[in-house]
Amino acid sequence: MTTAYTLKQPTYNATLTEVGRSTPMGELLRRYWHPVGISADAGATPRPVKILGEELILFRDGNGRPGLVYPRCCHRGTTLYYGKVEAQGIRCCYHGWLFDVEGQCLEMPAEPNPTGAQCKRVRQPWYPVEERYGLVFAYLGPPEKKPVLPRYECLEVMGPGEFVEADDSSIGSGGIVIAPCNWLQHFENVVDPYHVPILHGTFSGPQFVEQMSAFPKVKFEYGPAGVKATSLRPGPDGKRFRRVTEAVLPTLRVVANPQVAQYGMVESIGWTVPIDDTHYRIYVAGRVKEKGDLTKFKSRYAGNKTWAELTAEEHQKYPGDAEAQVGQGAITFHSEEHLMSSDQGVSMLRILLQKQVDLVASGGDPAGVAFDEKDAYVKFDAGQFLDDASA
After folding, report:
1. In this structure, are 168 and 244 located in the same domain?
2. Residues 113 and 165 grouped into a single domain
């Protein structure tokens, strides 16, 4: 007889889950741009930001330029969280040193020559930032390897009356804004279509639309910088419903609205941003026709409630992605898993990530980075389509 008494000490795959400085995955992720906030987060009040285990300060100077700096002032180490944002940058509350958005010291008020040569001898640590799609993106990697910030076809090609809206409420997480678990637990979910008819269908009741409850026939493929899952289900009027989702480097969840509001090219992109090893947040940018339309992507539960409206008892009775993934623990124990054929997408994604980790460790450039504008335009296959069933 075998009982739980015989279990060995469980372990997790640290190579793929830990994101701090000098870790294998941390170094891979630092070779890409990541959103650190929506554009409104960069303002006249210093805002603390944590990403990839690093604590930083985000602000926007009086000339409209966003900046992202190390929180400890390079003078005597007090936090710039209490700093004052001015036209040229951020001023430390302790001795008034003024830094611009690239960390250059502009003024030392207590010195005999406040703007003299001594200002050039120090520099506040900082990171490059750029704004696009209503988001502030940061590059935290080696300066000599900084790629071009990508443009994405699904956010560039607008339909009639469409515009791009950004959101920081973690649409796609299942309802939780800052999830207390490792980022990979959510990222792998993107290429796990078999959980949809069970977790979001028969188990908790239809959390999406009825046609999503059917068990799909799935094909998994590698793309240029990710893993693609094509799910086939019966569609309306004798058509075939083809749903394509992609998990793309570095952390992109390219998933069409499961409420099936429209057919065609995917409407939005979500960045599964690791805050640290045990927390993540999703930033989303998507095409909409009215302000607030992105919230329609959110899952609905019993009684048409949102995740936040559920009681503790209802969370247990009607679990969704948040419960399933947070329920795996802060970092899931990979040593206790038993992957099967239905987990092919998860296995492929792990293999892809491991190969990219190894590539960066050997001095190479990972998949999906571009150093020229013409190479930084990204197209996805993701979306929802109705095909002739005989095709």
Report:
1. yes
2. no
Domain count within the chain: 2
118 in the same domain as 151: no
Domain coverage including residue 174: 147-387
According to DSSP, the residues that pair with 228 across neighbouring strands are 221, 246
Other CB atoms within 10 A of residue 305 CB: 15
* Consecutive H or E run containing 177: none
Q: Is the pLDDT of residue 83 over 90?
A: yes
Q: Side chain identity at 228, as an amino acid letter?
A: K
CA 300 to the chain's CA centroid: 22
Percent of the chain's residues with pLDDT above 90: 83
Whole-angstrom CA distances from 214 to 34, 202, 211, 234, 312 are 35, 10, 6, 8, 28
Q: Cα separation of 159 and 168, whole Å?
A: 23
DSSP string across 29-62: HTTSEEEEEEGGGSSSS-EEEEETTEEEEEEE-T
224 and 82 in a single domain? The answer is no
pLDDT at 221: 98
Contact 278, 182 (CB under 8 A): yes
Which residues share a beta bridge with 286? 165, 268
For the entire predicted model, the pTM comes to: 0.95
Residues 186 and 48 reside in one and the same domain = no
